[in-house]
Amino acid sequence: MPGPRVRFAPSPSGYLHIGGARTALFNWLWARSQGGTFVLRIEDSDQERSSLDSVRAILDAMRWLGLDWDEGPEVGGGSGPYFQSERKARYREAADTLIRSGHAFRCYCTKDELDRARADLKARDPKAQFVYPGTCRDRQGEPDLPFVVRFRAPRSGATEFVDKVFGPVSTPNDVQQDFVIVRSDGFPLYNLGCVVDDHDMGITLVARGRDHIGNTPQQVLLYQAFGWSVPELAHLPMMLSPKGEKLSKRHASVSVSDYRQRGYTPMGVLNYLVRFGWSHGDQEIFTRDELVRLFSWERVNKSDGKFDEKKFADVAFEQLKQPRLMPDDEYRAAVRPFLGERGLDPVDDERLARALPTIRERAHTLVEAAHALDYYFRDPPELDEAARSKCLTPQAAPHLQAVAEWLAAVEPFDVPTLDAGFAALVKQRGLEMKHVAQPVRVALTGRTASPPLFEVAAVLGRQSTVDRLLRAAEIARSG
Ligand code: GLU
Q: pLDDT tens digits, residue range 13-33?
């Protein structure tokens, strides 16, 4: 049996929202775990709110997250086009089919007429909910006037479906009005476009945010009217603001690309997002392969979650820190662009490989990692002014000189030998460690905080270490 066909159907009116990325992730995981097909469809039928720039931003963010699609923009596929704006003729044809079969009708009511009817109702009963009164439902003749197409909603019975997450859902049809499926300018409304596309694209399971569960009865009615089978449905819990509102940019960064710029990794982001609806025992962080292997609908729950920026940062850090989750070679490749932003690319890969273990434990993001790695690749290192005036003093100059001379000759140039030799040298000069260690640190890194001194020296190598100390001694002498 061929695997499931699932889809992600963003509307390109900005960027890839992290809530959208969560939905894309669950679909992707299901496709990948079942040998299925992940379709990307761009719902740009509302052209005033769509832009090519945001299509590009969405595709970029999807690729960055590693949520590759099997069919869709730029990759093609047998069910295209994958932009709704290119499928208008198909929607019109589908609407005509419904008109012919009596499931839909043309409605010539103007906006003014409907507004007036709404105002009249409100005047009589301020609490009443206005529904389309069915004016054109049984109208004869087709005047040469603008019209919308409305679905002829049943007035009795109930529309039912079983959701994989929310269970059985039943909506009485008497709350349903004759909803619009095609606007007067010929554009399809979301429900029609979505149903026609999901059917034509052979989608077998529709997974999307719970905010769409209210549209689903209308979509089920459309499937029934077309005589098509309804795909499986799975609505996913919402990602809410800390106060429980719909999460928006008023509350936090909600664009995937913001997290990319902040130096989060794709798996750091995905590990946080997957929590919104899914878990596996107490395991906190997963590799991509583990997620694919472990994901199942049985483990998807319906509780909404609150977005917590601090927790997100902790998850991202945990993922970045552990070599099991972020192997060294991937880390090196990921941090290079951030070194590049600091004017430090290309860097010597071998030195980067040696430097990385010294900073991994401390860097919460790739931005912090690039900052922490900076002095390994900048010669001379950038000298922090406060560090200079505090530590590179005339009193420190002879000690720096002596350490440089010792390091120029000591054998072997490795961490245990240097640690032991340095302790002996400090003692021999009748000094305390803290008086010498800080000037040496500033000499090597330009900063007052760094990984252990001789781990840094071992990465820099003898020549660069000695050069930095001699240079610092000179600066220290001139105070
Ligand atoms: N374009 C809709 C959205 O972005 C898609 C909803 C769906 O998946 O059906 O919310």
A: 899 999 999 999 999 999 999
Give the range of the structural domain holding residue 408, as residue numbers without chain letter.
Answer: 385-477
Note the pLDDT tens digit of each residue in 43-86.
998 888 889 999 999 999 999 999 999 999 999 999 999 999 99
Of 190, 198, 203, which is best to mutate to test ligand 1, by the most ligand atoms within 8 angstroms of its C-beta? Answer: 190
Q: Which residues pair with 37 in a beta bridge?
A: 5
| Predicted TM-score (pTM) of this structure | 0.94
Residue 48 has what pLDDT?
Answer: 83
Check which CATH number belongs to the domain holding 314 and give it. Answer: 1.10.1160.10
Which atom of ligand 1 lies at the shortest distance from residue 215's CA? 9
Q: Is 43 in the pocket of ligand 1 (CB under 6 A)?
A: yes
DSSP 49-117: T--HHHHHHHHHHHHHHT---SBBTTTB-TT---BGGG-HHHHHHHHHHHHHTTSEEEE---HHHHHHH
Q: What pLDDT score was predicted for residue 46?
A: 83
Q: Give Cα separations from 301 to 218, 240, 312, 409 (angstroms).
A: 24, 15, 20, 64
Question: Active site residue: 249, 302, 311, 390, which one?
Answer: 249
- Tell me, yes or no, whether 61 lies in a domain: no
Are 205 and 234 contacting, i.e. CB atoms less than 8 angstroms apart?
yes
Separation between Cα atoms, residue 344 and residue 9, nearest integer Å? 39
Q: What is the mean pLDDT of residues 105-121?
A: 95
How many CA within 13 A on the CB side of residue 220? 21
Mutation probe of ligand 1 site: the residue of 194, 201, 210, 216 with most atoms within 8 A of C-beta: 194
- Of 346, 377, 408, the one marking the end of a domain is 377
Is the distance from the beta carbon of residue 107 to the nearest atom of ligand 1 less than 6 Å? no
CA atoms within 13 A on the CB side of 287: 10
Q: Is the CB of 208 under 6 A from ligand 1?
A: yes
The ligand 1 atom at the shortest distance from the C-alpha of residue 43 is 1
What confidence tens digit (pLDDT) does each residue in 291-338 have? 999 999 999 999 999 999 999 999 999 999 999 999 999 999 999 999
CB of 309 within 8 A of CB of 252?
yes
- Does the annotation mark 249 as catalytic? yes
